Amino acid sequence: MSKFYITTPIYYVNDKPHIGHAYTTVLADVLARYHRLMGEEVFFLVGTDEHGAKIEAAAEQAGKSPREFCDENVEAFREAWKSLDISYSNFIRTTDSSHEKAVSNALEYLYKKDFIYKGVYKGLYCRGCEQYKTDDDLVDGKCPDHQTEPEVMEEESYFFRLSQFGGELERSISGGKLKIEPAERKNEVLSFIRNGLQDISISRKKIKWGVPLPFDKKFTTYVWVDAFLNYLTGLGWDGKISPRPPLKKGGERRGLKFWPPDVQLMSKDILRVHATIWPALLLALKIPLPKKLYIHGFFTINGQKMSKSLGNVIWPKQLTEKFGADGTRYLLMSSLADGHDGDISWEKLTAKYNTDLANGLGNLVSRVMNLAKGFEIAVRDGSLKIKSEKVRKLLDEIKPKEALDEIWKEVDWANKYVEETRLWELVKTNKKQAKRVLEELLAGLINIAENLKPFMPETAERVIKILESGEIKKGEILFPRI
Ligand code: MSP
């Protein structure tokens, strides 16, 4: 059986999950469900990033120990993913002791193999990004993402020999061994790498909240190095590198049955590190690279960047309370076109819900089922697979919006067909012809429901049940108008 391994970024646990996190996670879930439906063995990893300066400071501000703070905050993520019907295989926390142990083992190996050396670091550090910044990264001296001036940091530090991997990374990415999609993103990353990579500091002296470096316990591990390894530890990897033989395909022996990731999802904010530090660590550890990084767009709200200070953040809870789990999943997946940013607002979301779900799909199902009363029409949800080849192709290409547009062509066709045939008259005047029209419509509906399984699992099941039982219960409404 072929396997499919998909990951989301592990989100910083100091924030509550917002619509951006929800988007990435729902997209991963849609792809995970799709590949399961196609008969593949799927591993779907989510989690939280819990170490480092940002979390340490947030915990202090909350008057809590970092551990207590993380334990409390992680619940918001679990709840959000539950309310959105996220079918993850594992939820990894970087404070899990097995993860910490594996990070320590891996660092020990990298140090022994001389991929890590000691030096002095001086640079500008943005705490919001947990990243050093170059002058080129700043706008008016400030981090453009956090609107804060980075701090000058100078400290003894351990470095990872990132510079040594530039050539191999360039070849892997340009040759498609490590795919980066969409193509603009790949080109951006390639030109960054071609400008030359520098060694990076992977230790922090002042930060207590992190994994101690195994070879010098005065230091903790740079949070990004710690975080990247989640993609391995989330599968049960213990960080032990056996000297020989190099990892075989599959890598079952080291808890890496599902390795490498088929798709790693993220947005552009964290692409650069994922296309440099992350694969370089893997090369140093002699572990195969992920097959693909897929970079989706960013949401803006009413044309503005989403931020707490602007008070315009949209939370998953607000969405699921208003639109339900499946309604929210639909609205999220249809709001960003392939790789592009998208602007949303409550007005736009509500309008789309009413048009596509309440008046579109919901109305279609109840109308057709009411007209089908008294007719004997056999329908069966025969196949496990997604029926439409076009929808499959679009999901293989990670184009959820385009796939939904495709499915909605059939919804629109069906609604029009009811009108054109004046089906409500036909069922009275010409039973034979009405039956033929109804057969076509029900076949269309079953198609729609099957294609919707990865996107709206509960709705798909409900529609299939309604179709199989041949009737819709009185008053049953799939999507109440808002
Ligand atoms: N902890 C790191 C990731 C470590 S992975 C080894 C991190 N966390 S984060 O909480 O900031 O999450 C960033 C990710 O959240 C983005 O890459 C994207 O997947 C999602 N989004 C955050 N804001 C977003 C929007 N406004 N729009 C769309 N997605 C966004 O970075």
From TrEMBL:
InterPro entries: Met-tRNA_synth (IPR014758), Met-tRNA_synth_2 (IPR023457), Methionyl/Leucyl_tRNA_Synth (IPR015413), MetRS_core (IPR033911), Rossmann-like_a/b/a_fold (IPR014729), tRNA-synt_1_cat_dom (IPR032678), tRNAsynth_Ia_anticodon-bd (IPR009080). It comes from the Bacteria. Residues 147-369 form the Methionyl/Leucyl tRNA synthetase domain. One of its GO terms (molecular function) is methionine-tRNA ligase activity. Pfam families: tRNA-synt_1e, tRNA-synt_1g. It is an enzyme of class 6 (ligase). PANTHER family: METHIONINE--TRNA LIGASE, MITOCHONDRIAL, METHIONYL-TRNA SYNTHETASE. This is Methionine--tRNA ligase. The lineage of its organism: Bacteria, Candidatus Portnoyibacteriota.
